[in-house]
């Protein structure tokens, strides 16, 4: 019996989560000051790397909702855990199908930059928070703070131009624009903090192919380039990042903005 090919979400969970997102997830939990018994909403939860930690932290007396627009991502999330205190919901962050004042905390790790209407999404996050409730966001800083991804973007740009080659995860990196948006949504005590961690892949090839196959909706035109173009892009990224190679593979700094605020 043949084994069915892995879905993009399964590749994302297997390759990209340990390389990038799992390294940041504990920081999100601490940033949001999660406590036992709380009700927490994880917006754009993906395959649930933050959601799982939230469920452990709030314990059996708490409740966590992982919300994502992608049914494929949610299927991978459900396959990973079956905690009784996690509820998975398929919905847009711009129209959250949950009651007003239903949560003590709302978190969103690397999702805000993908929402077409960020102001509406933030207004929805505020609506579902209790008065005084905590918002915690993480949004990547601009791409010059992630050198291997910058090399990847440049390789794409040489093929299809700057506008098409830009990598969407890094397109919302201006701290003051983010601050103004959060304040404009009605949040108070808004604070931003920059932080950096090492992202690790086995090699430049591992990074390029993991991103192309595991995050096609997030990385724009990369997944559309075809095998021959990807082969060339792998070579270009490898040649551009020798200083990012150590004895364990490809390792490079990647910086984020953390944002906290209160309703």
Write the layout of secondary structure elements.
Blueprint: H1 8-31, E1 39-43, H2 49-58, E2 63-68, H3 71-80, E3 86-90, E4 103-109, H4 118-128, E5 129-140, H5 147-160, H6 162-165, H7 175-184, E6 188-201, H8 204-214, H9 226-240, E7 245-246, E8 249-262
Parallel strand pairs: 1-2, 1-4, 2-3, 4-5
Antiparallel strand pairs: 5-8, 6-8, 7-8
Could you explain the architecture of this structure?
The structure is a single chain. The model has no long low-confidence stretch (mean pLDDT 94). The chain contains nine helices and eight strands. The protein is globular. Strands 1, 2, 3, 4, 5, 6, 7 and 8 form an eight-stranded mixed β-sheet that branches. α1 packs across α3 and α8 packs across α9. It has 263 residues and is of the alpha/beta class. It has one domain: Vaccinia Virus protein VP39 (Rossmann fold), CATH 3.40.50.
Number of helices: 9
> Domains counted in the coordinates: how many?
1
Principal-axis shape equals globular
Following the backbone from N to C, one meets helices and strands in this order, namely HEHEHEEHEHHHEHHEE
- Total strand count, please? 8
Question: What name is given to the CATH topology?
Answer: Rossmann fold
Report the structural category: alpha/beta
CATH architecture: 3-Layer(aba) Sandwich
> Can you summarize the main beta sheet?
8 strands, mixed
Average of per-residue pLDDT values: 94
- Give the CATH superfamily: Vaccinia Virus protein VP39
Unreliable spans: none
**β content, as a range?**
15-25%
């Amino acid at each position: 019996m043949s084994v069915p090919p892995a879905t993009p979400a399964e590749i994302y969970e297997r390759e990209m989560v340990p390389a990038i997102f799992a390294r940041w997830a504990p920081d999100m939990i601490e940033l949001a000051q999660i406590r036992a018994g709380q009700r927490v909403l994880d917006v754009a939860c993906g395959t649930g790397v933050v959601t799982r930690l939230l469920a452990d932290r709030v314990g059996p007396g708490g409740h966590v909702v992982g919300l994502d627009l992608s049914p494929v991502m949610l299927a991978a999330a459900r396959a990973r855990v079956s905690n009784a205190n996690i509820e998975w919901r398929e919905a847009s962050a711009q129209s959250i199908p949950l009651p007003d004042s239903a949560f003590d905390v709302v978190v969103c790790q690397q999702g805000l930059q993908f929402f077409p209407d960020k102001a509406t999404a933030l207004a929805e996050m505020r609506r579902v928070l209790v008065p005084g409730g905590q918002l915690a966001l993480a949004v990547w800083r601009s791409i010059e703070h992630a050198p291997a991804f910058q090399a990847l973007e440049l390789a794409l740009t040489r093929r299809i131009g700057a506008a098409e080659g830009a990598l969407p995860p890094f397109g919302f990196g201006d701290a003051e624009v983010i601050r103004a948006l959060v304040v404009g949504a009605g949040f108070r005590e808004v604070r931003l903090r920059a932080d950096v961690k090492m992202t690790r892949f086995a090699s430049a090839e591992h990074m390029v192919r993991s991103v192309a196959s595991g995050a096609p909706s997030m990385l724009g035109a990369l997944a559309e380039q075809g095998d021959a173009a990807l082969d060339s892009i792998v070579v270009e990224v490898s040649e551009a990042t020798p200083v990012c190679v150590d004895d364990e593979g490809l390792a490079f700094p990647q910086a984020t903005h953390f944002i906290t605020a209160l309703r």
